[in-house]
Amino acid sequence: MAKKSAEGAVPKPGAGSGDAANRRKNSDQVISVLRALAEAYHAFSGYSARHVRQLNLTPAQFDIIVTLGNTPGMPFSQIAKKTLITKGTLTGIIDRLEAKGLVRREVPAGDRRSFRAVLTAAGEALFSEVFPAHVAYLTRAFAGANPGELEQLTRLLRQLQSRFRDTPESL
């Protein structure tokens, strides 16, 4: 006699092979999505980096300038978190931006063990010039998309982000 499943139903003969085929198909679809996502990110990254280099900045330097723009500055740890640049790498990039006169280090009054990075007047001027130019450059890549497509794309990307953020590590 066939054993009942946890739900109380008796499985149909051969049902397991269909499940395996469905899992394989789902796995293939997920791999296709991940490949498309990686390829899209790679294409975006290259497209963005080409323009940033024309602005005489590296992508990491641009990222820091944009992160600090319109702020009173921030601790290195916060910059690292917002830019995904490691603290060790961040120090070298800040050194180079400081040498260019675009950033300065400040020691917070309450914590002399840490540093804040602050844009100088030249850094603020550069931010005011390069940020809108780069946004305009990136906007050209979306020229053929209508507002509904952009809203759908945003919604789907946020759903994907949520799936990765909300999935337990143990699965």
How far apart the termini lie comes to: 33 Å
Order of helices and strands: HHEHHEEHH
Helical residue percent band: 55-70%
* CATH fold node name of the domain at 27-138: Arc Repressor Mutant, subunit A
Summing up helix and strand content along with how strands pair, one would put the structural category as: mainly alpha
| Weakly predicted, low-confidence segments | none
Number of strands: 3
What is the arithmetic mean of pLDDT? Answer: 88
Number of helices: 6
C-alpha geometry: globular
CATH architecture field of the domain at 27-138: Orthogonal Bundle
Strand arrangement, largest sheet? Answer: 1-3-2
Report strand %.
5-15%
Largest sheet: 3 strands, antiparallel
Assembly status: single chain
CATH class categorisation of the domain at 27-138: Mainly Alpha
Name of the CATH homologous superfamily of the domain at 27-138? Winged helix-like DNA-binding domain superfamily/Winged helix DNA-binding domain
* Computed CA radius of gyration, to the nearest angstrom: 24 Å
Descriptive report:
Helix 1 crosses helix 5 (about 120-140). The model has no long low-confidence stretch (mean pLDDT about 90). This protein is mostly helical and about 170 residues long. The chain contains 6 helices and 3 strands, in the order H-H-E-H-H-E-E-H-H. It has a domain at about 25-140: Arc Repressor Mutant, subunit A (Orthogonal Bundle).
